[in-house]
Design brief:
The complex is a heterodimer of chains A (about 120) and B (about 120). With about 120 residues, chain A is mainly beta. In chain A, about 0% of the residues lie in helices and about 50% in strands. By secondary structure, chain B is an all-beta fold. In chain B, strands 2, 4, 5, 6, 9, 10 and 11 form a 7-stranded mixed β-sheet that branches. Chain B has a 4-stranded antiparallel β-sheet with strand order 1-3-8-7, with no helix packed on it. Classes of the chains: A mainly beta (about 120), B mainly beta (about 120). The interface between A and B is medium-sized, with 25 and 26 residues.
């Protein structure tokens, strides 16, 4: 069973538009961790954010913000005023496993920002 | 601080041949991961090491894939014999102790083509 679902395969926006990337997860564990990674065209995955299951506070970092809602098992990522450099594939990941924390990645959302 | 190093960056082999990939994690990182990323998909965890012990290898095709982590530092992943469906990018990542609960730092990957 897929544990991390990124239903949006590809999103295309024009520069300066806001865009939200969706992530829905499933787990039976009460302690787990959620992550977002960015994979630019160069190919190397870059860590963006980590959240534990006990911290539902939203987070903002510059133009990036994350909305974690346990009630809907979602961890969505919003980019405000998108830029061409934001073009990349974005992956949501879940680490669970009763102490071992085995990571599972979603299939990714390809974001294309047009000038 | 040096990042995760991987070699080779590219490899082309014929089916039924063998191949090996090498990874040197960030100094001091106890957890090391090998992923397979097929074009258009998210990274799929093959094996996770904590120091030189295996935490999870449930998705490693053990009839053809093997991995080891010498002295809890460098790691090698081997495929013998390779199949066409093994064509993918093989990613190595590392994180501080705490296993999959912490953010991962990825290497540039090895792109394998099996013909």
């Amino acid at each position: 069973a897929q544990k991390v679902t990124q239903a949006q395969t590809e999103i295309s926006v024009v520069e300066k538009e806001d865009v939200t990337l969706d992530c829905v997860y499933e787990t039976r564990d009460t302690t787990y961790y959620l992550f977002w990674y960015k994979q630019p065209p160069s190919g190397e995955l870059v860590f963006l954010i980590r959240r534990n299951s006990f911290d539902e506070q939203n987070e903002i970092s510059g133009r990036y913000s994350w909305n974690f809602q346990k009630s809907t098992s979602s961890f969505n990522f919003t980019i405000t005023a998108s830029q061409v450099v934001d073009s990349a594939v974005y992956f949501c990941a879940l680490s669970e496993g009763g102490g071992s924390y085995i990571p599972t990645f979603g299939r990714g959302t390809s974001l294309i920002v047009h000038p | 601080e040096a990042g995760v190093a991987q070699s080779p960056r590219y490899k082309i082999i014929e089916k039924r041949q063998s191949v090996a990939f090498w990874c040197n994690p960030i100094s001091g990182h106890a957890t090391l991961y090998w992923y397979q990323q097929i074009l258009g998909q998210g990274p799929k965890l093959l094996i996770q090491f904590q120091n030189n012990g295996v935490v999870d290898d449930s998705q490693l095709p053990k009839d053809r894939f093997s991995a080891e982590r010498l002295k809890g530092v460098d790691s090698t992943l081997k495929i013998q014999p390779a199949k066409l469906e093994d064509s993918a990018v093989y990613l190595c990542a590392s994180s501080v102790s705490g296993q999959g609960a912490y953010e991962q730092y990825f290497g540039p990957g090895t792109r394998l083509t099996v013909t």
